[in-house]
Predict the 3D structure of the following.
Amino acid sequence: MRVLSVASECVPLIKTGGLADVVGALPVALAGDGIDMRAMIPAYEGILEKLGEVEEVWADWNLYGGHAGLMKGTIGGVTVLALDAPYLYHRRGGPYADADGDYWDNPERFAALSWAAAAVAREGAGDGWKPDILHAHDWQAALAPTYLRYHGDGGVKSVLTIHNIAFQGVTGGDRLDSLRLPWHAWHPDKAEYHGNLSTLKAGLVTADAITTVSPTYAGELMRPEFGMGLEGVIAARAADLTGILNGVDEVTWNPETDPEIHPYSARNMKPKAANRAALIEEFGLGDVPGPLAIVVSRLTWQKGIDLLAEALPGFIAAGGGLVLLGSGEHGLEQAVRNAAARWPDRVAVRIGYDEPLAHRMFAGGDAVLVPSRFEPCGLTQLYGLKYGTVPVVAATGGLNDTVIGASPASLAANAATGIAFHPIDGIALAGALRQLVQLFDDRPAWAGLVKRAMKAEVGWSAPAAVYGALYRRLIA
Ligand code: ADP
Ligand code: GLC
């Protein structure tokens, strides 16, 4: 079976969040199941150089205003199709925005990606490769199923995965033509969305199947608190919706082989203490008698970073420490910097994006905090499990599906793998951090918790099998 996966990010070529990890990991995970998946992304500046030798497998003389070529290359064993259209994708800033904000032509930039994906799926690529399934991710690729539906599908079935409903590809209704949507799509049952257009909505009503990245989030999406206006659209398609958890790339994230750290395993935990000491030294912290917590995150409202301010004083007073790595909203960056200035011996902050440092933090931390207000899946709690860095999570979305929170019952049953709190506010987070301090002080209980965390199945084999079964159902 052949699957064309289309998205705006893919590790190791371009990443702003977990989407890239998933798009990069899926082809490898599915190969074992006999599925031949290619990943298609825009050729942002520098992508073709990273791919090295490439071959053009499709071209269009007028793809949303210019000549575009689809270039096939390989990286890490994955076949990548990079859409080379410099007039759309060579920009000074990141994939979506620069210092002045979002690019004004984002709707067309990603409609072009979706159009090319649908065309290649329908007609097949120049090297004879034609997919059975087109798998689109998020609003950037959501028009691909729509184009298959309205302009002919060539026998190809479509899947749309929602990684985050907060991003809906909303733009003015006057762009119907420029997005190459037929007039009949301007309807509340189709792409029209409160007087605007939403590419995500267009995809949700036209894809053959919909998935999202955890079973809990699949249910949450149908509720107004989480659906962000699209809850009704999703509820109407409940029968076609599946929640499939993300996995961890266990080659990159493995404490036994990680080149960034003193390697360790559940059987030999001694080096974890050396990693802790190294992290404390790297950040110039003083003695941390209680648990050393880490945060690796985008600094946004979604991630609940502001809740830390309320919960930190008690945690620090109880002996805890915090190392935080992230970047994002200015106010949140300032708030976490203020915390580091207030407790220089206990709190350290690095504003920026740094993968090797993230590895050293997971190895050196005792716990990883993920206080998200909503979290479709989340990857850092999975890294925490893998590295025996106990996840402290808000009980929502994928966090709820991947961490078994400590309670008298779950501890007695030897089932707990972390700490979970609800409701999602500063008071409950403070309570979770008190629980963390108590468990950390109870050496046998802590050792058991860490061991079970490290035993949790967080790889791609189970989720890959579910995707495989879904694809097979669609083409049966
Ligand atoms: P989201 O995609 O919503 O940001 P995820 O938890 O799914 O959340 O994925 C985030 C990914 O980005 C993880 O791989 C995480 O390690 C990584 N990440 C986030 N911020 C940073 C940072 N500042 N430095 C390095 N890696 C980061
Ligand atoms: C989104 C979500 C995150 C998820 C990631 C990959 O960025 O915010 O929870 O893990 O996509 O699916």
Summary: The radius of gyration is 23 Å. The CA atoms of residues 407 and 416 lie 8 Å apart.
